[in-house]
Amino acid sequence: MKKLVIGNWKLNPATAIEAVRLAKATDVEGAVLCPPDIFLMQVGETIKKASLGAQDLFWKDAAAVTGEASAVQLKQIGVLYVIVGHSSRREELKETDELVNLKVKAALAAKLKVILCVGEDLDIHKQGEVKTRAFVLEQLKRDLDGVSGGENLIVAYEPVWSISTSNTNLVDTPEEASIMIRYIKDESSKMGFDKVPVLYGGSVDSKRAKDFLSRGIIDGVLVGKASLNAEKFKQIISLV
Ligand code: PEP
Fold it and tell me: What are the angstrom distances between the C-alpha of 178 and each of 41, 168, 175, 181, 213?
């Protein structure tokens, strides 16, 4: 399988004009573009080669719930991938593993490809490898509880302390990330998710990408900040 490069635009850009411009500039084979919901349609109409992804979904269809988007709604505008359980949602919106689990199930039921984000924060990371592994395993178990048929499941290992930190020296290394990704693959396999692709995410830019993407064990990268810079993002995609 070709390695995946996912661009998570988060709350950027500010305007539809800029969103369309960025989509045009990064419309290349192998890229998955995840704009904010408000720009999904315009980005979807713009791209010809890249795939469309959403940053989140709600787990019910046609419910009396305000301000959300369902799997069915996302699908009908051409969304193929959806990020679930991103650490910014777990932190800022207090999204629990139980909610993440409902979202994973809803997305898979709608045949969306799920990018499930897991990863430890700095506090846990500082407690060492045993604690880190236990934390990530617990996340996986809770998030995937009762989930079957994982052919559309992708896991992204995103150590929270390494996200958006390219201005500090606090970033995960390809060596350490590879060890965790091996562990995630082994544990996922024991849970019945054989051959689940596992990506790395955390301050991947055009310089760091090569080191991660050259590791056989890492099936791709989830890119935040650098996905907003067309040149940098295209350089990353050119590596796969
Ligand atoms: C992310 O948002 O998932 C991410 C990895 O961001 P950044 O690349 O900016 O660290």
Answer: 36, 21, 5, 5, 10
